[in-house]
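Q: What changes when magnesium ion is included in the input?
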Amino acid sequence: MMIHGVGIGRGVAVGPVLTMADPLPEPADEPRSATLAVDAELERAKGALRRVGDDLEQRADRAENEGQRETGSILRALGQMAADPSLLDAITSHLASGQTTERSVYEGFGDFEQRLSALGGYMAERAADLHGIGQQVIADVLGVQAPGIPSSDKPFILVARDLSPAQTASLDMRQVLGIVTSQGGPTSHTAILARARGVVAVVSAADAESLSDGQTVIVDAAAGVVGVDPSDEEIRAVEERQRRGAQARSLRGHPGSTKDGVLVPLLANVGKPADAALALECGAEGVGLFRTEFLFMGNAEPPSVDEQAKAYEELLSRFPGRKVVIRMLDAGSDKPLAFLTAQDEPNPALGVRGLRALRTHPKVLEDQLEALAIADGRTQADLWVMAPMVADEHEAEYFVALGKSKGLRKVGVMAEIPAIAFLADKIAEVADFVSIGTNDLTQYTLAADRTLSSVVQYQTAWHPAVLRAIERIARAGADRRMPVGVCGEAAADPDLAVVLVGMGVTSLSMTSMALDDVRARLAEVTIAQARERAAEALSGEHYHPKY
Ligand code: PEP
Ligand code: MG
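A: The predicted holo structure follows.
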């Protein structure tokens, strides 16, 4: 049987289920004994709140000392929730109305939770966080064990309705192999913490409530499913995946390199400055593609120079001394922009897009370059700037000269139009670097719309025609000492990454989650082996099209 949910991260775990104890029963709604004065009871409630708050603070300190900054700050924020004066006010008013202390705490937290839920979205998810703290405070008032993580002498898969962030943060990772929750969303703090701690988790799996203690399950976060009562063969496959994953992760922090030490920087593709955190966590050596469209999309007007400079600065400041390649706005085709893109192009993928679109709007182009130069001046990163969809050396020369006139030091172009492969030697004379966008290069080489599933069988950079285009560019780069990176999806395929390196590509940029696997595969081959695989792939002898 398969239970579907939302996976957090890409890990996989297998083990016996242990379900979490039910929450505390709702405190009875009955009047407080006349002998218990409001002031004394308020002190009891305050004491419980303080102890729970202190406990959260201590756990925050511990997490931070272990280098878990995100966990630390979430625990600290929860501690602050427990100390919120409006929470104490609500508890006080329930006490004053004659309710028991535990009921007053219950109601006080309930009022606060309701207010958060009414706000919806992110704030509503914080209501679940608050509920967990309320349970701890009530347990403290009653002097009973707080509902929490079960313990066992054998490692287990924890199955719960939901976990509070504090519980997630304090999971003993030697005991808990993975977690499955029937509730909780992928953006809850619990999920954020699970991701940050590398806990294998599937959340929002409603059917998980049918699981019982001792049942064996596979928690497959990459697929977002829980496999119940797996076969021996399925368990062996999981163990093999875990072995490879652990091996791959153990190389984090090491530079990308072949087995014999040829360095190939492994960089991250990012879509907004906040993505820097995951990139760094996954061991990115810098950024190989920052798609700047996010700043422009959905706006009637382009953002100001100032606004843009702030966003670029935010990203660059996360990578002092490291390479960050920022791509100019790539509007048009499947990314139309109201203020830049013509509405009446019958075939927009072959229309005014990328650098062509920017040239028809020189102010947008110059403002972006100026914003980049400002951000560069304020930060210590090694900024490289490139234009998308460059067709020949004339366009390359134009863009490089303009970028340099604004004070940018490294200015290059993307190779996405096949023409550029035929002119690679000319490009190498004018550009500081080339970054190959294999997504568009494949689309245009094989005349297959990348957004159309009916031609998906043509959309592979393994096609020898695409590989030969890449190889021409890499060779021209090597002849003239011009760096040639790849930043399309092809770089994220570990086997293809080896082929690209064998063809002379000097850096690879990919989605952060792919870095571990690519780093590990590269480390398994020598440069001579990579060259052999490149020659074989270029020959096309083993390429079998699926059409
Ligand atoms: C590409 O075309 O390969 C590329 C990296 O750019 P995008 O996917 O943003 O078009
Ligand atoms: Mg592209």
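Observations recorded in class: The chain is about 45% helix and 15% strand.
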